[in-house]
Prior knowledge:
This protein is an alpha+beta fold. It has one domain: Nuclear Transport Factor 2, Chain: A (Roll). 36% of the residues lie in helices and 40% in strands. The chain has 4 helices and 6 strands, in the order αααββαββββ. The chain has a 6-stranded mixed beta sheet. β4 and β5 form a beta hairpin. It is globular, with a radius of gyration of 19 Å. The termini are far apart.
Amino acid sequence: MRRHYKFACALIVLLAAGCTTIADKDSEAAKIAAQNTAWLAMAAAGDAAGIGNLYTSDGTFMMSNAPIVIGPKKIADAWAGLMKLPGVSITFETVQLDIAKSGDLAMDRGRYELRFDGQNGPVRDVGKFIVVWKKVAGEWKVAADIFNSDLKAP
């Protein structure tokens, strides 16, 4: 009996010492979903500075056919350039969200759609993305953001 009691106590201590519960994961997933909703609203409003503030101080933005961009200010500038495309529209949705047991990292995998008016008419790009979220001072921030197109290269 004592052996089972010691095991149960050890298990409780381990669980309390850093593992997140399902309820915590649901709560954290909701916080990330709220960040994504805000991100989409900022994209629709052309708020590149607001989007830049979603990233960690050393966050990375990796667009197709472009060099890596590091840091919120440079990322905001990259988003500003993207949002200058005529008639631009950006949407995305999460397909899978995995939160680490530590509760401070998450992987967000999904699909995006980018539309704009090109030189030869409307352009519609669809593809996939991975965003690595990191909890910084209690807030979810983007540590790494990469996306690439499903369309064939020209």
